[in-house]
Amino acid sequence: xxxxxxxxxxxxxxxxxxxxxxxxxxxxxxxxxxxxxxxxxxxxxxxxxxxxxxxxxxxxxxxxxxxxxxxxxxxxxxxxxxxxxxxx
Length: 88
Prior knowledge:
The protein is mainly alpha-helical. It is built from two helices and no strands.
């Protein structure tokens, strides 16, 4: 009788360990998916940003706007990476 109880306890412990491993794998997959989505968003943001080569010296205001736009995108990227680090 004691041997059967010990075997049942061992089986329950093994099942719990397997469930924990599956949960950890799912969490890692979710984090990887989030990182991939964030990288895609960053690539889209940088692709849609106006190029600095189009600004000339005759358009200082536009150059200033472009600089602020670029700066805000850099802040966004830094913010996203800080969030990733905090999640990990």
